[in-house]
Amino acid sequence: MRRIEMYDTTLRDGSQGEGVNFSLRDKLQIAEKLDDLGFDYIEGGYPLSNPKDFEFFQQAADRDWRHAKITAFGMTRRRDTAAEDDVGMRALRDSHAPVITIVGKSWELHVTEVLQVEESENLAMIRDSIAFLLAEGRRVIYDAEHFFDGLKHNADFALATIHSAAEAGAETIVLCDTNGGSLPGWISHGVRAARNAVSAPVGIHCHNDCDVGVANSLAAVEEGASQVQGTINGLGERCGNADLISVAANLALKNDEFEVLDEGGIERLAELSRYVYEIANMNFRPNQPFVGSSAFAHKGGMHVHAVNRLAESYEHIEPEAVGNERRVLVSELSGRSNIIAKATRHRLEEDRELMARILGRVQDLENQGYQFDAAEASFDLLIRKEAGTYEAAFERLHSRVIVVTNERGEPSTEASIKLRVLGDEEHVVAEGDGPVNALDTALRRALSTAYPTLEKTHLVDYKVRVINSTEGTAARVRVVIDSADETDVWSTVGVSENIIEASWLALVDSFEYKLFKDRPEPVDSEVESPDPIPARR
User: Fold this and answer.
1) Which tops the pLDDT comparison, 460 or 202?
2) Quick one: CA torsion of 252, 257, 258, 259, rounded to 10 degrees?
3) Cα–Cα distance measured from residue 98 to residue 422, given in angstroms and rounded to the nearest whole number
4) Mean pLDDT of 354-367
5) Torsion of CA 70, 73, 77, 83, to 10 degrees
6) How far apart (Å, rounded) are the C-alpha atoms in residues 467 and 210?
7) Residues 501/494, Cβ–Cβ less than 8 Å
8) What's the CA gap between 45 and 31, in Å, rounded?
9) Which CATH homologous superfamily contains domain 2-261?
10) Rounded CA gap, 363 and 112, in Å?
11) How far apart are CA 424 and CA 441, in angstroms?
């Protein structure tokens, strides 16, 4: 099998994406997770660009890395400056990173118009920079920036730049589609040309501006590239970089010729994807290939019927191969197959009357504005409710939310709730940053003594949508809340003309689901106990 090196640049290239900002702690945590899965290189940043990147390399040098090589990124020396006198070169040397990635110009346009140097000086800048770092005992990877554009406009010059890098001793020549404008055919042509020009191993670095970053990376590997650079979840500037999640999964699962990551690493890709989203404080992308929550979700009744009989009829791999899971969605478009599949998964008795009743209830609620394909926890509650097997963990007796604005225009919010919990009444008042936060805080306080595991639950996302906009400010709204604990992420939904009431319904469903799934299940020696699926209150 041919080992394909996974070079991750989430901490450098990925952090250049809009809305992405990693703290020093974030960067170290992500690096440790990548190392744990068996990534070969972790690019920590440019040590001269900011104090945070400089400190990352200082702390990384004091840690034991199980597999990955920590890599610093920087540019070639400045024009008319000796490498040993260049401040950027010295910063790379002083980073203590065992591997340095040097980026240089391969497109004549950038050399003459951006750098404004002679072609010969550009080649010398590449050679001198690599030679200096090698003399300092560092391994060097060379990133040929804009290689594919350069190849198109002046092939001789583009190839001369990578030849200079290889001659100087770069261990891998990485061909960069920096503008993300190339298609797989041109990538294949460029890799072939580069492999004919240099004897050093060739890598690929693709951006996703044409939505083919992954396809381009795979095309390069098919032509002999031995290293793929990219980011987790495709984070990066403009449209992002090639998503290493998809690259690694495709290489490992679609072709027996390639080996990537450590043993067991592919099965943890979904975990890695969600971990980086959480650290970056970004929303999960449901339709993300392989690892998204919708990647193996089935909604059409015909599809679900087929998947129940033979999963591979509508799935290209087993979800578990990448740490994901199959989901059956339920909506007004669903047939009995969807309801049966959900009930079967939870090992409830297949009762035709019950299935019909659940489907009818779903259709009634969706006519009111509910959607259960994006709120499976609420649907699980509905099943248990209709089956008559759900017992509420608490009961709302009273709730009130007050918003007051002072003379300076500063609002304050207070929520008051009264619940019956395990036979006792709990009356709690709490302040918050808005009505939902105040309700959430009050609800947690009221339940914390009886149900301490709620402390481990936190809100991941909160979405509001107007359903019948023709009603203006009296329109019904749908609130969907995503919640998470240490092991799971779940979604709940509430609908009302009152946005606070809709939020309350979704929030209560979230807490009820958490409490029910945490309850110990009864043991039955003959019949396997059902999964914890509360029904909707």
Assistant:
1) 202
2) 90
3) 60
4) 81
5) -10
6) 34
7) yes
8) 12
9) Aldolase class I (3.20.20.70)
10) 65
11) 19
Q: Which amino acid is at 337?
A: S
- pLDDT tens readout for residues 395-417: 999 889 998 887 788 888 999 99
Contacts of 326 (CB under 8 A, 6+ apart): 296, 297, 298, 307, 311, 315, 319
Residue ranges per structural domain of the chain: 2-261, 297-387, 394-450
For residue 534, the model assigns a pLDDT of 38
Q: Looking at the DSSP assignment, which residues form a beta bridge with residue 21?
A: none
- Tell me the two tokens of residue 477: 């709204």
At residue 18, does pLDDT exceed 60? yes
Put residue 504 in one of left, alpha, beta given phi > 0 → left and psi -120 to 50 → alpha. alpha
Distances (CA, A) of 262 to 75, 236, 280: 31, 25, 24
Q: Which H or E run includes 132?
A: helix 119-135
pLDDT at 387: 80
Residue position matching structure tokens 């200082």: 58
> Which residue type sits at 48?
L
Distance from C-alpha of 419 to C-alpha of 414, rounded to nearest angstrom? 16
Instruction: Give strand pairing partners of 229.
Output: 7, 205
Q: Which residue has the tokens 């104090």?
A: 51
Fold of 394-450: Double Stranded RNA Binding Domain (3.30.160)
Considering the entire predicted model, what is its pTM?
0.71
348-351, long-range: CB < 8 A, 24+ apart: 348/383, 348/387, 348/530, 348/533
Contact 236, 17 (CB under 8 A): yes
Considering Cα of 255, then 261, then 262, then 267, what sign does the dihedral take?
negative
If you ran DSSP here, which 8-state letter would residue 234 be given? G
Q: What is the pLDDT of residue 364?
A: 84
| Count of CB atoms situated within 10 Å of the CB of 109 | 13
Q: What percent of the chain shows pLDDT beyond 70?
A: 88
In 3-state terms, what secondary structure has residue 75?
strand
* pLDDT of 528: 42
Which residues 6+ apart lie within 8 Å of 112 measured at CB? 119
Q: Give the containing element (helix H, strand E) for 167.
A: helix 155-168
CA 344 to chain centre: 30
| Residue 217 near residue 247, CB atoms below 8 Å | yes
| Type and span of the H or E element at 398 | strand 394-405
Round to whole Å and give the CA distance between 132 and 142.
13
CA dist., res. 16 & res. 20, Å (int): 7
Same fold, 2-261 and 394-450: no
Identify the sign of the CA torsion 45, 288, 370, 536: negative
What angle, 0 to 180 degrees and rounded to 10, lies between the N-to-C axes of helices 336-345 and 376-387? Answer: 90
DSSP 1-70: -EE-EEEE-TTTTGGGSTT----HHHHHHHHHHHHHHT-SEEEEE-TTT-HHHHHHHHHHTTS--SSPEE
The identity of residue 479, as a single letter, is: V
